[in-house]
């Protein structure tokens, strides 16, 4: 990627992100009345993160089996409500372990 | 000054937590081929995990700018709700200028801590609150990007899963407890997998937008959130 297009992408990203935060804080002085809109906005984070994680996580390590091992570990530890850092490190360790299995063309 | 320090203290835990999330972003950025300074620049300008990760993928495949706009808008629209909510808690001295500055670092965690604080918020507290998260985010990205450059490929590729694992750790616990969130999360994941396996030309990063809007709409329709 050329440096120039990198700057264009970053500028667009940053501008849109900033506007979503800034415009309501500066302009909005009243509450949203619509229950549907409020509910929709409340669910958006979970919907976004889930859609990003599956199937994306399976392609995050360059090999599906190692990523699948990481996913299983991440899910198991998240279920037990371990901290973000613990979950992330354990998932990476599991992925690394599987990718180091000798001879497995994983 | 006392309020600034109080905010600084409240923000410290967030900043430390951001070190690790940003570290994973830094890893992913250099894994994808960006330079260290580019990874850090993205973090300093955006200060958002999911949006940056999606944006990174889009820029690496040279996606159209309109796609970038739509994806960022969908992923980050939740900040609008948070900003609306936060706007109700600001004291009278919060002029437009300070609102412009504070909103730059209104992340999920900053919002959560600010909302939980009793009474109205003044600007000193908020500036204190956003200081450590911002520094942690930038520094963590730098450390991750540097680590990504110097560590062996087999290790950095495995570390590429960290940021996704954190997403799992964010979504799974509330999904376990609350059925509406579980339904929304499962719907979004199922749609995303389905769209991924269907060869729809030109869908690309918009898949996340389609899945998120559909799943969140379903959630809002089935389980309207009561006043609160």
What Rg of chain B do the Cα atoms give? 19 Å
Proportion of residues in extended strands of chain A: under 5%
Shape descriptor of chain A reads: flat
Largest sheet descriptor of chain A: none
Q: Report the helical percentage of chain A.
A: over 70%
What is the tally of beta strands of chain A?
0
Shape of chain B: globular
State the end-to-end distance of chain B.
32 Å
Task: Give the domain tally of chain B.
Answer: 2
**Whole-Å distance between the termini of chain A?**
29 Å
Q: Helices and strands of chain B: which structural class?
A: mainly alpha
Question: What is the SS-derived class of chain A?
Answer: mainly alpha
Largest sheet of chain B: none
Helix share bin of chain B: over 70%
Q: Provide a count of the helices of chain B.
A: 12
| H and E order of chain B | HHHHHHHHHHHH
User: Order of helices and strands of chain A, N to C?
Assistant: HHHH
Report the β-strand fraction of chain B as a percent range: under 5%
Unreliable spans of chain A are: none
Oligomerization status of the protein chains:
heterodimer
Give the tags.
heterodimer; A: mainly alpha; B: 78% helix; globular
Write the layout of secondary structure elements.
The complex is a heterodimer of chains A (106) and B (228).
Chain A lengths: L2 H25 L7 H19 L10 H16 L4 H16 L7
Chain B lengths: L1 H30 L4 H11 L2 H12 L4 H12 L1 H10 L8 H7 L5 H9 L6 H28 L2 H7 L2 H16 L1 H19 L8 H17 L6
Helix pairs in contact in B: 1-2, 1-3, 1-8, 2-8, 3-4, 4-12, 5-7, 10-11, 11-12
Account of the 3D structure:
In chain A, helix 3 runs antiparallel to helix 4. Chain A contains 4 helices and no strands. Chain A has 106 residues and is an all-alpha fold. Chain A has a domain at 45-106. By secondary structure, chain B is mainly alpha-helical. Chain B folds into 2 domains: 2-160, no CATH class; 178-228, no CATH class. Chain B is 78% helix and 0% strand. Chain B is built from 12 helices and no strands. Chain B has helices at 2-31, 36-46, 49-60, 65-76, 78-87, 96-102, 108-116, 123-150, 153-159, 162-177, 179-197, 206-222. The longest helix of chain B is centred in the N-terminal third of the chain and has 30 residues, at 2-31. Chain B is globular and about 55 Å long. Chain B starts with a helix and ends in a 6-residue tail after the last helix. The chains are: A mainly alpha (106), B mainly alpha (228). Chains A and B meet through helix 1, helix 2, helix 3 and helix 4 of A and helix 1, helix 2, helix 3, helix 4 and helix 5 of B.
